[in-house]
Design a protein that fits this description.
Length: 470
């Protein structure tokens, strides 16, 4: 069966350069499991509706299983003349079982076959990404729990703003990655739709049972429109968009780890196993892993833009341009999984320099807002209190002191309502623990957030657990 599937129409053989140019086997060979799974389901459906016999079905299913094992064992031979994994498997099936292999493609096109394989592949990969994100979120929660009570500077505009708990800071990333997990789960709903049976674009004249193949493959429903079924790549775009947002969060985390590990911050020390040295400067310990995480964000963004650009002007239905969809998809899948894995393994081994964090939280007037709040409590309007504290800060700067280091009589020169109890309000722990509004940084709030996160994680189920594994 090594002849081209369309040879009946053509008088001249395909140019060797064209064969190489159109070949995608180096890219799409990773779809082999899904192609065999989809072909097996299609074969069983053909027998169910009487298009092929049970004996023919058994022969074909057995041949497909043999091919799967050959690929697993590294014994399968690839050839550019056969373009893609679908033609490779069909050609090998003919070698194994003879002419009956030609019946497998009845009521099916490569168009719905490719759409099916990529949905099966991406559904499984999405489940894996969600599971890996859950592992990362668990690490963040447990790290936050281990660091409870430690105070660090919080920033706006990369300027010290207000003190927060280190645990509160870490739990912010838990929230980000939880949203990411939700986006992947939401995208999975729309990739869990079977296109098989749409054929080339218009459906088929054969009495197929699309619902049966969808059931065999664990899909929730079938595509409602045959043209949309083969033309749609939204499910890939949704995955790439969710992945891009996820990488934004990883890049922000990586940026902070890079800054915090510098001498200028000194907030953390990265584990030796997740850092590298310099080829010329013996003293260096470089944050290469966070830097690579940050850098790989651009790759994922590029993959999304590449597929958006490929799809933006395509008329319905299938166009060969869509062969280019797999390169950015596979690249993003590999990149995101690698990033989740390395960050999940690195986080528990980071050493937090909590004494440095605490010391720096007590400098830079991070308690200025609390002085304003104190004045409001004494009956002063907030805007007036804001101005009073601003003048007090300017005075303290000139004295080379912090607000809480100014004597009471100097404080009272700015507002007569100030009394000695102001100094209690300006204490670091007090500043943090007074922020008890929902979602605040007070220790009680953070403990509650950690407890809820643990409860939520324990109650999460993996997408696809209800149906057959994909």
């Amino acid at each position: 069966m090594s002849a081209k599937l369309w040879d009946g129409r053509f008088a001249a053989p395909t140019d060797k350069v064209v064969e190489k140019f159109t070949s995608s086997i180096d890219i799409d060979r990773r779809l082999y499991r899904h192609d065999i799974e989809g072909s097996t389901a299609h074969c069983r459906m053909l027998a169910k509706v009487g298009i092929i016999s049970t004996e023919e079905m058994n022969t074909l299913v057995s041949g497909l299983a043999t091919i799967g094992q050959e690929i697993e064992d590294g014994k399968f031979v690839y050839d550019d003349r056969l373009e893609d994994i679908h033609m490779h498997i069909e050609d090998r099936l003919g070698q194994l079982v003879g002419p009956v292999a030609r019946k497998l493609h009845t009521a099916r096109s490569r168009n719905d076959q490719v759409a099916l394989d990529t949905r099966l592949y991406l559904r499984a990969q999405t489940d894996m990404v969600i599971a890996m994100l859950k592992g990362l979120r668990e690490v963040l929660v447990e790290t936050a729990h281990a660091q409870l009570g430690h105070i660090m500077p919080g920033y706006t505009h990369l300027q010290r703003a207000q003190p927060v708990l280190l645990s509160h800071h870490l739990m912010a990333y838990y929230e980000m990655f939880t949203r990411d997990s939700g986006r992947f789960a939401d995208a999975r709903v729309r990739m869990d739709i079977s296109p098989l049976g749409a054929a080339a674009l218009a459906g088929t004249t054969f009495p197929i049972d699309r619902a049966y193949t969808a059931e065999l493959l664990g899909f929730s429903e079938i595509a409602a429109n045959s043209m949309d079924a083969v033309a749609d790549r939204d499910f890939m775009l949704e995955f790439l968009a969710a992945a891009s947002i996820t990488m934004v969060h990883f890049s922000r985390l990586a940026e902070e780890l890079i800054m915090w590990s510098s001498k200028e911050f000194g907030f953390i020390e990265l584990p030796d196993a997740f850092a590298t040295g310099s080829s010329i400067m013996p003293q260096k310990k470089n944050p290469d892993i966070p830097e690579l995480v940050r850098g790989k964000t651009g790759r994922v963004f590029g993959d999304l833009v590449a597929l958006l650009t490929t799809m933006k002007s395509l008329s319905l239905t299938y166009n060969r341009d869509m062969q280019e969809d797999k390169t950015p998809l596979f690249s993003t899948v590999d990149t995101v999984k690698a990033v989740i894995e390395v960050v999940t393994r690195m986080l528990p081994h980071i050493r937090f320099n909590t004494a440095t964090m605490r010391h720096e939280s007590g400098t830079g007037f991070l308690n200025a807002t609390d002085m304003a709040d104190y004045l409001v409590g004494q009956g002063m309007a907030f805007r007036e209190a804001h101005g009073v504290v601003g003048r007090a800060v300017a005075h303290a700067l000139a004295q080379g002191k912090e607000l809480h280091e100014l004597p009471l009589e100097e404080m009272q020169a700015f507002a007569e309502v100030i009394d000695a109890d102001l100094y209690e309000a300006l204490k670091l722990e007090r500043v943090v623990d007074r922020r008890t509004s929902a979602g605040g940084t007070a220790a009680a709030c953070v403990r509650a957030a950690i407890a809820k996160a643990r409860e939520d994680l324990a109650g999460e189920s993996q997408p696809g657990q209800e149906g057959p594994a994909s």
